[in-house]
Amino acid sequence: MFSGIVECKGRISKIDNHGDIFSIEVYCPKGFNENLENGASISIDGVCLTSKDNGDNALKFDIVGETINRTKFSEMAIGDEVNLERSIKASSEIGGHLMSGHIHCTGKVIKTDIRKNSKDILIEISDKYLPYLMEKGYIGINGCSLTLGKIVDNSFYIHLIPETLKITNINELDLQDLVNIEIDQNTIAIVDTVKKVLLAQKSS
To answer: Which of 188, 187, 2, 186 is nearest to 94 (CA)?
Structure first.
């Protein structure tokens, strides 16, 4: 599990295509891989990946086709910056919201508004996930725990503070860029439960 509080940015340094699987290496800042163990879970742009070793030289991961197809990793390239977060511990302070690292879909940036110290971004999403979007609710964007702003048709706003822009790769987002989206699991459970109850009432 993750908190959605990005610790730092890394950079993809190697990509190997093995047909049904991709192997990647990610350069990380000094200290991020401290005491990292083989098999540890790490959030890479919001995607939960399993470390292949202790990351002494670079973080190493294998990515299966399902993950490639569902995420913006379908367009990854050497040199891309990615957001990094280690999995939380029982004693960790959770400043964002609990995230699984399981991406539901990608979204597309369709508008950016750069202000003096902040940035507003409008992201388009598949109609399938619109029922789970609620203003002031939680959403994960590239592994960042963010608050949903205004919902506009099949799009939603996020409003970014200077600290988020400084630490994450969201500051680099531009028009037509893809982002990884994880919908809040509690919201999904509530919405789906209400739908089932209403459907049962109609048919009774």
So the answer is: 2
What tens digit of pLDDT does each residue of 101-116 get?
999 999 999 999 998 8
For 100-123, the DSSP string reads: -S---EEEEEEEEEE-SS-EEEEE
Domain borders along the chain are: 8-86, 105-185
pLDDT tens digits, 145-185: 999 999 999 999 999 999 999 999 999 999 999 999 999 99
Alpha-carbon distance of 50 to 87, in angstroms, equals 11
What CATH topology corresponds to 8-86? Answer: Elongation Factor Tu (Ef-tu); domain 3 (2.40.30)
Per DSSP, the three-state class of 136 is coil
Reported pTM: 0.93
CA gap 29, 40 in Å, rounded: 17
Fold that domain 105-185 belongs to in CATH? Elongation Factor Tu (Ef-tu); domain 3 (2.40.30)
Please give the single-letter amino acid code of residue 7. E
Residues in the chain: 204
Percent helix / strand / coil, the chain, rounded to 5: 20, 40, 40
State which H helix or E strand residue 201 sits in.
helix 185-203
